[in-house]
Design a protein that fits this description.
Structural class: alpha/beta
Largest sheet: 5 strands, parallel
Number of strands: 5
Strand content: 15-25%
Radius of gyration: 15 Å
Bound molecules: 4'-phosphopantetheine
Distance between the termini: 42 Å
């Protein structure tokens, strides 16, 4: 059974993330959605909140579970026995950035990266813009799952 890790900050999870989770669940035996919890002052949701939101989102997929990691992603993949990292790509800018990480991750441990193009309707969504729009009073209901939207409204 092949295990893939879908890593991210997920601060917060968006419709784009949810789409990649569903498609990865269909492609791999097991998927671990792994929230990176390296320290950063700019996080809106703490690791526990991000895990809760992700757990609600993956509940519909029996072969998907949620984890957290600190430190190098490749070390987490090795510890979990995962040979593949899954990433969503929205644009050429994402590709340039992600390609370098994919090469570095492979060079370090041999873990491979598979890219999934985001669906067109999600190609312009990012957690950071969602946070900014929500902070400034904009409506982000179309960009995030309903449970995440409710938490954003509560938080802000
Ligand atoms: O959702 P994001 O912010 O694009 O996720 C980025 C993340 C967490 C996947 C990436 O920053 C990462 O893998 N961090 C772990 C630290 C690491 O392994 N760094 C070396 C990358 S070559």
């Amino acid at each position: 059974m092949s295990t893939a890790v879908f890593p991210g900050t997920f601060d917060p999870p968006t419709n784009g993330h949810l789409d990649i989770i569903g498609r990865a669940a269909a492609a791999f035996g097991e998927v671990i959605v792994a929230a990176g919890i390296n320290q950063s002052k700019s996080r809106l949701f703490d690791p526990g909140e991000r895990v809760e939101m992700l757990s609600e989102l993956v509940a519909q997929y029996p072969n998907v579970r949620v984890g957290t990691f600190e430190g190098l992603l490749v070390d987490y993949c090795r510890a979990e026995g995962a040979g593949v990292i899954v990433k969503g790509l929205r644009s050429a800018a994402d590709y340039d950035y992600e390609l370098q990480m994919a090469h570095l991750n492979h060079a370090m441990t041999g873990v491979d990266t598979m890219f999934l193009p985001t669906r067109a309707e999600n190609a312009f969504i990012s957690s950071s813009w969602v946070k900014e729009i929500a902070r400034l009073g904009g409506d982000v209901a179309a960009f995030v799952p309903p449970g995440v939207h409710a938490r954003l409204l509560k938080k802000l």
